[in-house]
Design brief:
- There is one protein chain.
- With 457 residues, this protein is mainly α.
- It has a single domain, classed as Up-down Bundle (Growth Hormone, Chain: A).
- It is 72% helix and 1% strand.
- A two-stranded antiparallel ribbon has the order 1-2.
- α13 packs parallel to α16.
Length: 457
């Protein structure tokens, strides 16, 4: 067989990019490690809320003070996500993730020595700084091992680690808190984070899909090649509708998530008179519902994309609809007294938004050059998760200023609904991956969704 030579190609045709070999076994090992990473991540986030009542009783703190402690988690969360996003263009995912997990372990230690408000704040600030980049950088690490047409299920599994984290953490940490005191939960999480970091250092190498390998030299210098520029100004990337819509969807979903972590356990125990075990069971049920949605919707998005449905409808619309449904359920909570409908509404309000998190990364990746994906993921995560800084403290203030806790929760839920429905409408109106990829040119055709003109959404 005669091999073609460069002269056999048309004179102006670019050389085909080298193909990465998909190592299925190694890719799924990395996926399993990253799912575990996310489980630990969300267990760390959940522990303060699960221990809220005994902590508030022991330290004799007000709702506003507890809300401030909870919000302190987000003080550096967004900033660190932004900074590490840019660092990821130069530092391997292996180093970034092992450093994050090691810091998670350290962040749980202050309250084991001094149980006080300053110790809680210090631990939560450090934890937030170390967890700010976790979702975006672990997704970035995952994408390095899976080609574009195989990312739907791994993305869903990565985000499902969040649901699994709460699903597992709620009963296990509640048992530890009830049986051995709330400090024991912090100690167990410190050990768990340290063990994961050691395991990741051994197996967590970067995969072959981390960069546009067709022209690495051009990518490094931002120079145009035969297929167009491989990098774009961040201003152009961040101001296109698809990225802005992805941020809006994440913002609305994160508002519900912040309330879930900070105030849902306390609400269930103080307003619905649930036992610690009953509250943990309901929180686990909400997480199970989120998990079902994640494992069902994301593969469906992949299938719809392969069939040619545009990204607007296959991945953009589900984000807006999910946040809108959760927001409307949140608005209905204060006005329903019957137990079963109320539990259904709580499940929808705090669980339906979960599908947004894998999909907003997929839509952003559709219009971002691979070499800039980690940085943009960091920016999207940093802005989309700002509610973690606002919602817990604002809810505590509403509870302390309202004439009754019931009135305070009513105000908090209605405010959350307004934010979420607004964010949903923005996402529905602006996410247009194919349109924005064409506007940005060849470099804007990221590795998440192919432009409509070439294959499918």
């Amino acid at each position: 067989m005669i091999k073609p030579t460069p002269s056999d190609r048309p004179p102006n045709a670019p050389a085909p990019p080298p193909k990465a070999d998909f190592d299925r076994r190694r890719a799924w090992l990395i996926a399993a490690m990253i799912v575990t990473f996310m489980i630990v991540n969300y267990a760390d986030k959940s522990v303060l809320g699960l221990a809220a009542v005994p902590i508030m009783d022991e330290l004799d703190i007000s709702n506003s003070t507890y809300g401030m402690i909870s919000s302190s988690f987000a003080l550096l969360f967004s900033l660190s996500g932004l900074v590490v996003g840019f660092v990821s263009t130069r530092v391997s995912s292996r180093v970034l993730l092992v450093t994050m997990a090691a810091l998670w372990a350290v962040a749980q230690l202050p309250v084991l020595f001094v149980a006080s408000v300053p110790a809680l704040v210090a631990g939560r600030v450090l934890l937030g700084a170390a967890e700010g980049p976790a979702a975006s950088m672990s997704m970035h690490a995952l994408y390095k091992w899976f080609p574009p047409d195989r990312r739907g299920l791994p993305s869903a599994l990565q985000i499902s680690g969040a649901a699994l984290g709460t699903l597992i953490a709620a009963p296990v940490l509640t048992w530890l808190i009830t049986a051995f005191g709330w400090r024991s939960a912090f100690a167990v999480l410190a050990v768990t984070s340290a063990v994961w970091s050691l395991a990741w250092w051994r197996v967590g190498h970067d995969g072959p899909y981390g960069h546009d390998r067709a022209a690495p030299d051009r990518a490094a210098h931002g120079a145009p090649g035969p297929g167009g520029p491989l990098r774009l100004p961040y201003r152009r990337l961040l101001l296109n509708g698809t990225v802005l819509g992805s941020i809006a969807g994440a913002f609305g979903a994160s508002w519900a998530l912040a309330l879930s972590h900070a105030w849902l356990p306390a609400y269930l125990r103080t307003e619905l008179d649930m036992t610690p075990g009953g509250a943990a069971t309901l929180i686990s049920g909400i997480s199970a519902f989120s998990l079902v949605l994640l494992l069902g919707v994301s593969p469906l998005v992949d299938a719809l994309s392969r069939r040619g449905l545009s990204g607007r409808w296959s991945s953009g619309a589900p984000q807006g609809v999910a946040v809108a449904v959760a927001g409307l359920a949140m608005a209905a909570l204060p006005f329903v007294d019957a137990r079963l409908p109320l539990l259904v509404l709580i499940t929808m309000a705090f669980g339906a938004h979960a599908v947004v998190f894998p999909l907003h990364y997929m839509t952003a990746a559709a219009v971002v050059p691979p070499a800039q994906r980690g940085a943009v993921f960091g920016i999207v995560a940093a802005t989309g998760t700002l509610p973690g800084l606002i919602a817990p403290y604002l809810t505590g203030r509403l509870l302390d200023s309202a004439p009754s806790p019931d009135a305070g929760y009513t105000q908090a839920f209605l405010l959350a609904s307004a934010v979420m429905v607004t964010a949903a409408l923005v996402a529905l109106a602006t996410i247009r991956p194919e349109r924005d990829a064409l506007r940005l040119g060849p470099a804007g055709r990221g590795q998440g969704v192919a432009p409509r003109a070439s294959t499918s959404a």
